[in-house]
Write a structure and sequence with these properties.
179 residues; binds zinc ion
Length: 179
């Protein structure tokens, strides 16, 4: 498990262990949403927004099929947009977005622009890429999200990978059999 706060610019990020007591339970809630997305015919990804005390505020599954084969309808970007409409910057700075797989560059950008202060993810993009390959619907964009956040002007804390074996199970056999 890696954890660090991305600084606004340059230099090595300080390594801190910032796992909170409720992080695993909320990440598993994101896993449940990913399962429900898969069962509904969407891609197996899910995200949860929680406040600074670990209270879930919003849930979001992947929206690929639900949004009409929208290849940009990732759970994290949909959730970041909903969060930005519902909460102000001061509130979102205290919130955590839990997500079944590491946010891609697009979603990390959406999380940054929404102003969500913390991200906890299950599976790394690198591990996801090994599972999806170059699937037409999900040619995984393998860029660590902390690189995107580190280029920003407000800090975003990242915790992950966490419960990575469980996170990988969500993808099992999905991409090989997805036509
Ligand atoms: Zn994404």
């Amino acid at each position: 498990m890696l954890s660090f706060m991305s600084p606004p610019a340059g230099d090595e990020p300080p390594m801190t262990s910032s796992l909170r007591p409720y992080d695993e339970a909320l990440l598993r809630l994101a896993f449940d949403l990913a399962k429900r997305s898969r069962e509904a015919g969407d891609h197996p990804f899910g995200s949860v927004l929680a406040d600074g005390e670990g209270k879930p505020l919003m849930e979001q599954g992947n929206g690929y099929s639900a949004a009409g084969n929208d290849r940009t309808a990732h759970a994290e970007s949909l959730l970041a947009s909903r969060a930005a409409r519902a909460y102000d910057l001061a509130d979102l700075a205290k919130c955590t977005l839990y997500t079944s797989a590491e946010p891609c560059a697009m979603c990390a950008g959406a999380i940054y622009w929404a102003g969500i202060g913390r991200v906890v993810y299950g599976l790394t993009e690198k591990a996801l890429k090994a599972l999806t390959g170059a699937h037409e619907e999900n040619p995984t964009l393998d860029l660590p999200c902390d690189i995107v956040f580190a280029a920003g002007q407000r800090a975003t804390e990242v915790v992950g990978p966490l419960l990575e074996d469980e996170a990988a199970q969500l993808q099992a056999d999905f991409w090989r059999t997805r036509g």
